[in-house]
Amino acid sequence: MDAIRKILLPTDFSANAQNAFRHGLMLADRMGAEIELLHVIYPEYEPLDLPVMAAQATREKAEAARVVMKEFMELGLAQMHTTGQIKSVPPIHADLEVGTPASLISEVARRDEADLIVMGTRGSHNTLERFWGSTATAVLEHAPCHVMVVPEHAPYQKIEQVGYATDLAEADPYHIWEAGKILDAFSPVIRCAHVNLEQSVEHALDLNGLGHFFDNHAPALQITFHTLQGGQVAPALDQFIDQFGLDLMVMYAPGHSWWQRLFHHSETKAMALRAQVPVLFLKH
């Protein structure tokens, strides 16, 4: 796994996007990464418009967005300097694109070889449910890199306690190790949790097996294992986050089929929508 060197941060200039920007700044500072700020402009178009009129209106929106982008960056940097949460300002590149966020975010991440997308879970023109049903869902399905979603009002703080939600799949040791490498700059404690739904489901691994694997192959990794009891995934993980004061949750999200399964389980969807800490989705 390569190190995180470029973070793509989509913004609609909302307060929630500003919060995600602060998270991105903290990550970039600790990881030695650069940030690409992306604002997507919806093209101005009316059925009776002449093409030249529509193009002019879009250019005017772009000029206004450049001014707001500069103010957005200055505000975020000033807040982080005031709190002393970054040691130096990472390289920041501002990018304006015309189109729809749901498709362009993944396209830009692929074109510019981003290693991580950091985005808020609420836009200025969407309810949280609608946002997750459109833009974030599309990005998580199609992004070529890892994605971190930052809930509204999630505090930006040092990542010390991390939760990993495991379904005891055969590839879990690799993905847990990958999460540890991505977050190595923070030296966090990783708490792996499996929710026992009391169903007769066979798993490729068990928590004892995972523990032995990391004892033998990654003894320096600070990792613990927990079995959670409950009839639903979301409430059990909510309690787990609260019990250990987790700063971040990590999940493996390989692609479209996984995302369909996830969102067909109302309890897991509810957990994602109401999460009070950022969630890092590993894509590969």
UniProtKB/TrEMBL annotation:
Belongs to the universal stress protein A family. Pfam families: Usp. InterPro entries: Universal_stress_UspA (IPR006015), UspA (IPR006016). The lineage of its organism: Bacteria, Pseudomonadati, Bacteroidota, Saprospiria, Saprospirales. Residues 4-151, 224-282 form the UspA domain. This is UspA domain-containing protein. PANTHER family: STRESS RESPONSE PROTEIN NHAX, UNIVERSAL STRESS PROTEIN UP12.
